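HUMAN:
Just now I want nothing more than another pair of eyes on a protein record. I would be glad if you read both lines and explained how they fit together. I have put the entry right below:
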Amino acid sequence: MGMWLLIQIDKSSSTPLYEQLYRDIKGRIIRGDLAVGTKLPSKRKLAEFLAISQTTIELAYGQLVSEGFITAVARSGYFVEQVEELAYVEEIREELVQTESVKRNYSIDFNSGRIDTAAFPFNQWRKYAKDVLDETSRDLLLLGHPQGDVELRQEIASYIYSSRGVRCTPQQVVIGSGTEQLMPLLIRLLDKDAIYAIENPGYPITHYIFDNYDRETLAVSVDSDGMKVAELENQDATVAYVTPSHQFPTGAILSASRRAQLLNWASSKEGRYIIEDDYDSEFRYVGKPIPSLQGMDKHERVIYISTFSKSLMPSLRIAYFVLPMHLLQAYRHTFPYYSSTVPRLDQHVLAQFMQDGHFSKHLNRMRKLYRKKLDKLTRAFEAYEPTVLISGEQAGMHIVLTIDIRSTDRELVKLAKLADIRVYALSEYHQTTENISCKPQVLIGFGGFLEEEIEPAVEALMNAWNIRKA
C-alpha cells in the first residue's frame, strides 16, 4: 500500500474528493506508474488509508471503469487496463487551459442589433415547434435539400415578392445560417478576380469577410442619397455591395436616379453584379416601402440577400440569398457537397409560421411598436436641438446623431462608457478618413429598449456628454 499513501487528497479544496482521487489514479496509469494488470486496493482498504468514505472511492473507481482505465472483475476487484494509445491524448488535454472572454454588459446599451424580445410571439412559436417535434417528423432528422427545404424557400419567395417586389422562384433561393455564412459562398461563386465596391461608411462584418478571402475592395462614398454611383463608375470595381433601402450605418436611402444609374452600371459590362443587402427593409416608417433593386433589374445582375435577424430574432440564424437564374447552375457546380447549415426542424417551424400568416402579423405589430419607440426617441433628442441633430430616421432600428461639440465621436464613446452607456462612433464604420463629418456622429440603436426606458436613457447619455436642454 506504500504507493497509495502518496496520493494527495486536499480536503479543503473546492474540487470534490472523488475527482481528486480519480485524477490522481488516472495520471499514474497514463504515466505508467501503475502497470497493466495491477490490482487496485479494495474500496474499504483505500478508504481507511486515506481517511475518506467508501462512497468517494466508489465514485472515483466508477469513473475510471467507465473511461476504460480500469476494469472490474467480479469477486476479484479492480485491475489496470491497457491504455497506452490514450496516454498522449490525455496528457495534452490535461495541460490545456482555455478561458472565454465575457462581453461587458452595459446598464444602457444603444446597440443597433438589439430587438424587442418582450414582444416576440412565444405562444405561437412554441405551438409550431411542438408540432414539428413529433414522431411523424422523423424524416426531418435526415439531411434535406442543400439549398434549404422547399417549404421554406416557397414561403420566402412568396414573401419577398409581395413585400419587396423580388421576382424569383423557390429554386433560386439559398438558405444559410446568417449573412456572414452566406457571403463567403457568394465570394467563392463570383470571379476570383472580382473587385468589390463597398459603401463608405459601411457594414464592417462584410468588409472583414472580403479581407479574409483576400478579395480586393474599393471604398465608395455615401451621402444622403446613398452610394455615389458616379464615383463607382470611375473605379475598376466589378461587384457593388450596397444596402439601398436603409444604408448601414447612415440610414440614407438610395435615390431613384441612383438606383437606375447603379443598374445601368451593372448591365453595361459582362461579369458585373450588385449584391443587394436588404437587412431591415421590413421597418420603414415614412411613405411607401422602397422597392428592391432586384425587382427593378431587367438583366439579372442583382443578387438579393436578407435575413430574419431583425424581423424575428438574431439567434434564429436564418438568412437567404436569391441568385439570378444563370448563376444557379454555377452555384450547384461549385458546391456539389454543400448541406444547408440551418437545422431542418427550425426551417419547418418558420415555414409553417409564415404559411399561417403569423409572420406578417408579427411584422405589422413590430412596425407599429418600433415606430412608437422611434417617436419617443426623436422627441427626447429634440429637446437638445440644435446641439444634437438626428438623421436616418425614415426606417430601421437605429438613427445617427450629429453633435455640435468640440470632441471626436470616439471621445464621446469613451465618455458614455464611463457612465456605463454603450454607443457607437460612426467613424468606426469608415474604410478611409475621407467623407468623415467634421462634427462627431454617433450611431444610436433603439430596438432593445422598452418605451418607458427611452427618455431616461437619452437623459443619461446627454448628462454623460454634459449637454443641456435648449
About this structure: The two ends are 85 Å apart (CA to CA). The longest strand covers residues 216-223.
